[in-house]
Amino acid sequence: MTVSSLAAPAQAEARPDRPGATELRLAAFAAHRRARFPLGPLTLFTGPSGSGKTGALRAYEALARLGGGAALDEVFPDPVACVPERAVPDAQRRRGFRIGCTVDGPEGPVRLDVAVQAEPELRIVGERLTAGGLTLLETALRDPGRRAVQAAWHTAGSSPVTRGPLPDDRLGTALLPLRVSGRTDGERRVLAAAEQTVVALRSVYACDPSPRRMRAAAPLGAGRLLRGCDNLAEVLWRTRTECGHRYAHLVTAVRAGCAGPVTDVLAEPLGDGTVRALLDRGDGVRTHLGLLGDGELRYLALALVLLTGPGVLEVDSAGEVPAALQTLTVLADGLDRGLDVRQAGELVRLAARMCERGHIRLLGAVGDAVRVCEVPGVTVVDLTP
Asked: What string of DSSP letters covers 84-133?
């Protein structure tokens, strides 16, 4: 694995206000044995088919969903598929994997590591939350017959730690606010680190635009963009009047990535409760989006994702945390799928500009790093053996 970045050199600065993941760690997960991947505001995985690009993104999404409180079996409906094919079970027929990350923010770097048993039963068998060399939370499976793990969290009061059971199908870090009172300085430190980790992970939007679905008219509804971007026309109808400034940027981006002249991107109701999207060519001709090529549709949808936010995208944001302190992470597997060299370059340059502002991060996978490696601000993780 090689890593390159054209981001500006790190300076000694105050801790970031918006928490963000700076490293992803995988052990015995899919194609990855013991891997550590640096994450920047804009990170792109590249490498041949089977090198583990998709697996890395799936692991990050799994951490995000666990951080949001999802049950383990919802996150891993087929956990055995995450275990390396040749992994040998132990004497108790157990096999599993480890996933983890580091999150930087107001509390400084915080590490989260989770050990998951995939066979014979799916369960979390260990979890550790650490910061500044101090273990804030540690769990372990003591009794395989009980559906619980023994947890110990930092207290620094009359007792250095507090112990208690936690369920083995949920992330303990996400449950700490319900179990820790915050009476001591130690407990308050635990809560702050847990909150920083959950806020960084929770707001994730996994996006894979489907051109076939985007060609049809979309029914009017909530106006939140689905992960397959099926309702692209509906979201264009909604967002056109909500933020003229950002919509102008979208039109500019579409003009750079679509063939032929583009003076506007429109949406019009059809009278049957649906709406369709159009490109205004500026000479009286309006092209229905259903006539565009797959690459143009994917490019348009991904540009819209980068130029909007949690209020428009179908994402579980932390509603109790001010938006100014949150960062949306977009996961885009096959970011350059169907795009030509020009479109891929324009899309990554747009992503770099948006990620530089701090309110959005992008973690994607591309098939051809040559298209994007010269864009400043991109961290490229090459998984080529």
From this structure: -TTPPP-TT--EEEEEEEEEESTT--EEEEEEEEEESS-EEEEEEEEETT
